[in-house]
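>> received
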Amino acid sequence: MATPPMIGGEHALILYSGSKTAFDAHAGTLEDLGAATYVGADAGLASLHDLALLSGMYGVFAGFFHATALIDSEGIGAAAFFKLLGPWMAAMMGELPGYAQKIDSGRHGVDVVSNLGMQSVALANILAATREQGVATDLLAPMLELFRRRAEAGHGEEDISGIVELIRRR
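>> returned
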């Protein structure tokens, strides 16, 4: 989870999996390269974690790119808009631990402030405005489809975290 110039720096994260004994024996040396994080005995888990972390990053990037394209449709620059978007996104990141708990428990209806049905309407409105502004809907339209499928399956009163039930491996 680091580009070559990051190696040895404070932001380098290096994932390890496989033999815990080997990791423990060399942890001190590995820490010199970056935050050495052991993720499990299965040798493929470091790669899976890497891809999952990058997936989260690309999801955030997709939201940023869509939002800036939408605001750009009225001639507002991305840097100027980021003054609003950055703090808003930081605040929304604070919601993720609660979503993680709901996903782990399978209980998506607990403490729902704005349910999937309401969120579906909100996202449909965003996509309508997106089309009206001449901006592509490619990044967010699939999410609305998941919202709708989950709501049509009888889960409209639950939280949006329930869409994970449609995309996780069975």
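>> The beta strands are 13-16, 35-38.
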